[in-house]
Amino acid sequence: MGQAAEDPRAAAAEAQKPAEPSMTATTKAEEDLPPLSDHDFRIYNQLAERMDSFHNYFRQSWTILWSACTSSPSPSSSSTPVDTDELLYTGLSLASHLSAHHSIEETYFFPRLAARMPEFDPRSGPMVEQHAAIHAGLDDFEAYLRRCQRGDEEFDLAKLRDRMEGWGAVLWAHLDEEVRALGAENMRRYWTKDEIMRLRM
């Protein structure tokens, strides 16, 4: 496989390191908000918790595939423990579920949030931009796995890794940033408790 591949999770974590603190208007506005009770925190945080449960499936699937690509010999090796059918199934399931998840978000969920939250704006919001960056790589990843499934191309872990590296960092960053955007401290800036209770995912 040649050189060791950089783990996209590490790249995403590095990109998310907080900048030096500065006293911005947002920071000041957050400081002026009273602390949330445990009860209110749970109300405001419910969408983040639900989103994180979806995202954990994507994290788990990615990790299975990435681990196979970076720690196993090639599937053509006689000593390999790699189950090609299982990896194909995991990869195609990841692609299918991630595409459906993003489609539902952009059709039904983001437009409601975007009315007040610029990060979900369908024209320029970072959440939608991250979706586009993810799908730029995901589409090629899925097409490769489909060719392997049909027998048109031989499955190769190095090729799979190559098709994961280009969009891995943005995927991992997105999985965390979207949950953070839906977290209690951010949501309370835009929505009342009653409104949060009516927002459905």
Automatic annotation (TrEMBL):
<feature type="domain" description="Hemerythrin-like">
    <location>
        <begin position="48"/>
        <end position="178"/>
    </location>
</feature>
<feature type="region of interest" description="Disordered">
    <location>
        <begin position="1"/>
        <end position="36"/>
    </location>
</feature>
<dbReference type="InterPro" id="IPR053206">
    <property type="entry name" value="Dimeric_xanthone_biosynth"/>
</dbReference>
<dbReference type="InterPro" id="IPR012312">
    <property type="entry name" value="Hemerythrin-like"/>
</dbReference>
<dbReference type="Pfam" id="PF01814">
    <property type="entry name" value="Hemerythrin"/>
</dbReference>
<feature type="compositionally biased region" description="Low complexity">
    <location>
        <begin position="10"/>
        <end position="21"/>
    </location>
</feature>
<protein>
    <submittedName>
        <fullName>Hemerythrin HHE cation binding domain-containing protein</fullName>
    </submittedName>
</protein>
